[in-house]
Structures are given as C-alpha cells and as structure tokens.
Amino acid sequence: MRAAQELLPAGATLDLIELTGIPVFNQDDEAAPPAAVVEFKRRIRAAAAILFATPEYNYSVPGGLKNAIDWASRPYGDNAWAGKPAALMGASIGNLGSARAQYHLRQILVAFDMAVVSQPEVMIGNAAQRFDAAGRLTDDPTRQHIQKLLETLVKLGRNTRVA
Ligand SMILES: Cc1cc2nc3c(=O)[nH]c(=O)nc-3n(C[C@H](O)[C@H](O)[C@H](O)COP(=O)(O)O)c2cc1C
After folding, report:
1. Which atom of ligand 1 is nearest to the CA of 127?
2. Rounded CA separation 43/19 (Å)
3. Ligand 1 atom closest to residue 96's alpha carbon, by position in its atom list
4. CATH number, domain with residue 47
5. Overall pTM > 0.90
6. 43-102 confidence digits (pLDDT tens)
7. How many domains does the chain divide into?
C-alpha cells in the first residue's frame, strides 16, 4: 500500500485504513455500531474508489478483513460499499502471491455488486525478494503492475459520487 501511494496517477490520493480496533461483528449491534466501525464506514463513503490489499491466510482472506467488510455492509440498506469501484492486490512470501485470497475476496464483493477491476491482477509472489529490509517495494516490474492497476481504478473512481 505504501508503494501504491508512490505510484498514483496525478491528482489522486490514497488514504490507508487500518482495521485495528474493529471488534468481531455482532448483529445485535449493527444498528448502533461501535465508534471504530462508524469511522470505518465514514471513510469508505468519503472515498471515490477502494483499493483492497490482503495477505493470504490459510488459502483465503484473513478473518479480520472479512469481519470489517461485513460490518461496513450492514445494517441492510446502509451498505457503505455500495457503488464503489474497487481493485485488489496482495503479497505473499509464497509463490502464489495471495491469489487464492484475492479470488475469495472477489467472490465476497459480488454480494455488493461492486465494479472490481479484473486486470491487471497484482499477486506479488515471493515477496521477500521484492521488498528491501525497510519494507520498500524495490521490484520494478511489480511497481509497474501496481501503477497500471491504479490507473484503471482511478479512471473508474473519477465517475463515482462520494458522501
Ligand atoms: C494464519 C496464517 C495463515 C497463512 N496462510 C497463508 C496461505 O495460505 N498462503 C500464503 O501464501 N501465505 C500464508 N501465510 C503467510 C502470509 O502470507 C504472510 O504472513 C503474510 O504475507 C505477511 O504479511 P505482512 O508482511 O503484510 O504482515 C499465512 C500466515 C498466517 C499468519
């Protein structure tokens, strides 16, 4: 995500949203959600487009990401994801670069009828060799891939109404 911040098309900004502090979803609380969720939904609504970055946990998305997605989709009729274009990316120390997690994430987003960028797919395998010790993405082909994804997402986002 920090690499993506450096690779944005002119005029675009990328705010990072961390999921820390979002509790386990409880439908009893969906009408009056905790403050962390209210803020999370506000930030989604303020965005013209969403860039998801996910690691892969046991062949799927981390539970924390799914949990946060669920919160923001509720209560029924107050889905913060509605109408937002999205793009996916991910990295893994393994070969597949979070591919399995990303396909699960795509499936989840079908529930919201979101426009999700199909290509390029940014699945960064063998990540340990593409980042330096400070966590900077040093691999040029990967940087170009991310840049292309961002160009496509930002084009979609330019037509989005924000709250
Ligand atoms: C519970 C758990 C399950 C994992 N499962 C997978 C997996 O299925 N596939 C994979 O490529 N990496 C797996 N990993 C390794 C993660 O991809 C790796 O921890 C992650 O890339 C670290 O991301 P970060 O450096 O962004 O925190 C798993 C890690 C954890 C903690």
Report:
1. 21
2. 12
3. 11
4. 3.40.50.360
5. yes
6. 999 999 999 999 999 999 999 999 999 999 999 999 999 999 999 999 999 999 999 999
7. 1
